[in-house]
Write a structure and sequence with these properties.
Elements: H1 2-29, H2 58-82, H3 84-89, H4 93-117
Helix pairs in contact: 2-4
Length: 143
C-alpha cells in the first residue's frame, strides 16, 4: 500500500517538475513582440462590430442540444440494430424491438414538444415586449 502511494506521489512530482520546466522553457524561447493588432478581438477575419459582451440568442443552444440528442440516439440505436438478428435467434427479439421502440418513442415525443414550442423555427416574430434597443459601438479599424 505504501509503495503504491509512493509511486503515485513520485509520478505527480515528476510530472509537475516536467510541466514547470516545459512552461519555463517555452517562455524563454518564444518571441515576445506585442503589437496593437494582436489585442484586437478576432471575428473570423471580419472587423469587430460592437462590444464583445452581448446577449446570445438561445436558439443556437436549443438547436445544438437537439442535434446532440439525436446524434447520441443514432449512436445508441445502431448497436441494437446490429445485434437484433442475434436477439431474435436467442428468443429476445420482441424485448429488443420493444426497448428500441420505446427509446425512439421518447425521442419522438421530445422532438414534437420542441417543434410545437417553436424552438426549431429559426426566424420568429417577436412581440413588442421581447424587443429592446441595443447599443452598437463604433466600428474598430481593420487590422
Amino acid at each position: 500500500m505504501g509503495f503504491d502511494l509512493g509511486m503515485v506521489l513520485g509520478f505527480l512530482v515528476v510530472s509537475g517538475v516536467a510541466l514547470l520546466a516545459l512552461l519555463l522553457l517555452g517562455k524563454l524561447l518564444r518571441p515576445h513582440r506585442p503589437e496593437a493588432s494582436k489585442r484586437v478581438t478576432y471575428e473570423c477575419g471580419e472587423p469587430a462590430v460592437g462590444p464583445a459582451w452581448f446577449n446570445f440568442n438561445n436558439r443556437f443552444y436549443v438547436i445544438a442540444l437537439v442535434f446532440v440528442v439525436f446524434d447520441v440516439e443514432v449512436a445508441l440505436v445502431v448497436p441494437v440494430a446490429v445485434v437484433f438478428r442475434e436477439a431474435v435467434a436467442a428468443g429476445a427479439g420482441l424485448l429488443a424491438f420493444t426497448e428500441m421502440f420505446l427509446f425512439l418513442a421518447v425521442l419522438l415525443v421530445a422532438l414534437v414538444y420542441v417543434w410545437a414550442r417553436g424552438d426549431l423555427t429559426w426566424v420568429r416574430a417577436l412581440t413588442a415586449g421581447e424587443c429592446r434597443e441595443v447599443e452598437v459601438g463604433p466600428r474598430s479599424p481593420a487590422p
